[in-house]
C-alpha cells in the first residue's frame, strides 16, 4: 500500500500546473514545497487567497470568473473593473476567499499530526475530506467576504467599496501570515 502512495506522490508532483492562473501561487509555494519535502505528504492543490468577481449563479460552470486578483487590490483598479463589468449586463458577486491547501497524507496519524499544527496557527476550517485512495486533508483559513456587487449596475457606493477593499486586503494579509506560521511550525 505504501508503494502506491509514493507512486501517486511522484505522479502528482510531476504533472503540469492546471490552475486558473497557470502557475503556483507564489505566496504559498514555500509551504507547498516544505510539505512536499516530507516523505508522507504531498500537496494536490493550493491557493494563498484571492479576490474574485464572479457571475452570480448557483451552478458551477466554466467561464464564471470575470476577474481574479491574487494580490492586494486598490480602489482605482477595482472601480475600473466594476465599471467595465456593468456593460455585460450580469449579476456579479464579489468574493474574497481565504487560503486553502489540500494535502495527501500517507496515513491517518500523519493527517492528524498536520491537522493539529494547522489548527494551532489558525487554519480553523480544516479537516479530512477523503480517505479512499489517500487521506486528503483540507487546510482552510477563515478570512472571507462575499456579497452581490453588480446587478446591471454597481450596488455599492465608493465609501463601501473602499471599506471592503480595506477589509479584503487585511484578510489576505492575515491568510499570508498563517501560511508563513504553518511553514515555520512544520
What's the name of the CATH homologous superfamily? tRNA wybutosine-synthesizing-like
Distance between the termini: 25 Å
Net shape:
elongated
Strand count, sense and closure of the main sheet? 4 strands, antiparallel
Q: What are the key terms here?
A:
SSo0622-like fold, alpha+beta, 40% helix, single chain, 186 residues
Structural notes for this entry:
- The protein has 186 residues and is an alpha+beta fold.
- It has a single domain, classed as tRNA wybutosine-synthesizing-like (SSo0622-like fold, 2-Layer Sandwich), CATH 3.30.1960.10.
- The chain has helices at residues 2-14, 29-37, 75-86, 108-120, 158-185; strands at residues 41-47, 50-55, 65-69, 91-97, 100-105, 127-130, 135-140, 145-151.
- The strands form two sheets. It has a four-stranded antiparallel beta sheet with strand order 1-5-7-6. A four-stranded antiparallel beta sheet has the order 3-2-4-8, covered by helices on one side.
- The two termini are 25 Å apart.
Layout of SSEs?
Blueprint (H helix, E strand, L loop, with lengths): L1 H13 L14 H9 L3 E7 L2 E6 L9 E5 L5 H12 L4 E7 L2 E6 L2 H13 L6 E4 L4 E6 L4 E7 L6 H28 L1
Antiparallel strand pairs: 1-5, 2-3, 2-4, 4-8, 5-7, 6-7
Helix pairs in contact: 2-5
In short:
With 186 residues, this protein is α+β, with helices and mostly antiparallel strands. Helices cover 40% and strands 26% of the residues.
